[in-house]
Amino acid sequence: MYSTNSNQSSQVVKEVDRAVHHGLAIIPLRLEDVPMSKQLEYYVSNLHWMDALTPPLEEHIENCAG
Question: What is the pLDDT of residues 28-49, one digit of tens each?
């Protein structure tokens, strides 16, 4: 889940790096419209993004789980 906090977290960058290294699928869900850090952009810039910018969040999660 992409937000201001996750964008600024060094731990999130490490987790994304490990996911990429192990060939795991990454499905980014954007909760806030904030510019992406260079570190995260390196890993997820070419992925299809799911947006959950408008409330309620639960509706977006249900749509992703589809």
Answer: 888 888 998 999 888 887 766 6
Alpha carbon 12 to chain centroid, angstroms: 9
Most distant CA pair in the chain, distance: 33
- How many other CB atoms sit within 10 Å of the CB of residue 2? 21
Q: CA geometry: angle at 14 spanning 63 and 3, to 5°? A: 40
Length of the chain: 66
**CA-CA distance, 35 to 31, in Å (whole number)?**
12
* DSSP letter assigned to residue 35: P
Structural contact between residues 24 and 1, judged by C-beta atoms closer than 8 angstroms: no
